[in-house]
Amino acid sequence: MQQVTFPVVGIIGAGAMGRGIAQIAAQAGSVVKLFDTRSEAVVEAVQAISGQWSRLQEKGRMTMEALAENKSRLIGANALSELSDCSLVVEAIVERIDIKKGLFAELEAIVGSQAVLATNTSSLSVTAIAADLKYPQRFAGFHFFNPVPLMKVVEVIAGLKTDPSVCDALTRFARQMGHTPVQAQDTPGFIVNHAGRGYGTEALRIVSEGVADFATIDRILKDQAGFRLGPFELMDLTALDVSHPVMESIYHQYYEEPRYRPSVITAQRLAGGVVGKKVGEGFYRYENGVPQVAPEPAAPLIAEMPPVWVSPRASRRAELLQLLKDLDARIETGSSPSPAALTVVAPLGFDVTTVAVVERLDPARTVGIDLLIDDAATKRRVLATNPATRVDMRDAAHALFARDGKAVSVIRDSGGFVTQRVVSTIVNIATDICQQRICSPQDLETAVTLGLGYPLGPLAMGDRYGPTNILEVLFNMQTVYGDPRYRPSPWLRRRGAIGLSLLHTEE
Ligand code: NAI
After folding, report:
1. Which of 74, 135, 209, 283 measures 20 to 30 Å from 415, CA to CA?
2. Which helix (H) or strand (E) holds 74?
3. For 361-384, how does the pLDDT look when each residue is reduced to its tens digit (9 = 90+)?
C-alpha cells in the first residue's frame, strides 16, 4: 500500500460521524486512534466498524489479510494524551463552538506543532473555531456526510488563516480514503448545505401557499425533474430536529437573506415532535418503516370532451400542439377560442390568472400546464387551475392530458407551478454560490450530485432546462410575488445567455 499522507490519525467523537471517518481512514492505511469522553462509545464504535469489515470480508469485498490489517490499525484511545503522535486529528464531537474550542486548545498542548487539526462541523465557522489557536494556520474544516463510507464527498474548508498546504494535504488524504474532495470557502453551510436550501424551502413555500399538498409536490418533483426523493420524503428521512435548525442557522448567518427563509410549517412540526420517519410520523405516517401515502385521485370521466385552444404565447407551443394531436384532441386554430373551448396556457413564472387577464381569455375556461421541461422527458403532467376555472373545464383538461395513461396532477394557481419554482430556486442559489466564489463551478456540481444526490448538478440542470427559461421564471415570479427571494443572481443574469456549466476564462 502507498504511504498515506497522515500515518497516524486521531478521531475525536465516536458517534455516527466519527466512526465513519475512523473506518475509511483505517481502510486507507492510517493507524486510527479513536477517542470519546464516553469510553463505552469507543468500544461500541470499534465493534461496529469491525463488524462492517467482517461483513465486507464475508461478501468477498475485503481479503482476510486486509481485514486483519484494518482491525490492527483501529485503536481505541482512553485519554486525549494518547493522541500525541497523530499527524492529523479530526474532531466530530457535539456541535457547540465553546466545547470544540476548548477541545482544540487542549489538543494543541498534546500534539506536535506540525500536526494538522480539522473539524467536521457542518454549521459553525471554521475561522471562529480556530480563532484562539496558537497555530491557526494548521487548522481546516474537513466536512463529511452521513453515512461517511457511502457518501463519497468531503468538503475541505480553509479558515481565514489556514495555510494552503494544509488543505492540499487533506485533499490528498481524502482521495486516499476513496472520497472526492471539494474545496469550499468558510461560509455558512459551505457548499452542500447551502446549495441544498432551494429544494426544501421552496417546496415548503408551495405547501404554505396552499398550492398543492406535500405528497403531490413529492410526486411532481420525482416524476418531472427526476429527483430520487421528494423534498418531504427527504425531510422525513433527515428528520426535522436536524434539518430545521440547519435552515434557521443558515438563514440567520446570512443576515436574513430572503432566499433561505425557513418555514413556520417545519418550526411547528418540530415543536410538536412530528419530526420524521425515525419517530414513525413526519409529513408521512410510517407503518413498519413504510410511508402511508393516500392514492392519487383517478382521472375524471368526461361525457363530451370540449375542443381545445392553445394560447399563441404558450411555452413549447409546437410541442404542446403535437401532444394534443397525439392525445386526439379537437384543436381549434382560430385567433381566439370559441365559446365552448377549453383554453390552455403554458406560462413560465407567471400565474394562470394573470395570463388569462393579460391575454383577455375567459378565466373560467382557462387551465395552465407546466412545460418548462419537455413533456417527453417527464413521467407526469402538471396542470394548474385559476380561482375562476370551472370544474367541468378542470376535469376536461385532467382527463384529456391523462388520455395516454401518463400521470396528471392538478394544482392551484401560483406563479411558476411546482417544478419551475423549485428548479429555478435551486439554480438561482447555485449560481449565487458561484458568484460569491464559495467554490468552483466544477466543485459545486460534484458536491451537489454526490452530497445531495440530485439527478444533475444545478448548473447542468439550468442548462438542461434553458437558462433563459429559468431567468424568465424568476423575473416573472418576482413580479407575481414582489419578493426579493426570487431575484436572479448576477451570475445567472450574465451567463443566462451563454450557458451555465461552460468553463469560463474568469473561473
Ligand atoms: P453524535 O452525537 O453521533 O456523536 C458525537 C460524539 O461525540 C458522542 O459519542 C459524544 O459522546 C462525543 N463527545 C461529545 N463531546 C465530546 C468531547 N468534548 N470530547 C470527546 N468526545 C465528545 O454526533 P454526530 O452526528 O457524529 O456529529 C458529530 C459532528 O459532526 C458534529 O459537529 C456535527 O455537526 C457534524 N456532522 C454531523 C453530520 C450528521 O449527519 N450527523 C453530518 C456532517 C457533520
Report:
1. 283
2. strand 74-76
3. 999 999 999 999 999 999 999 999
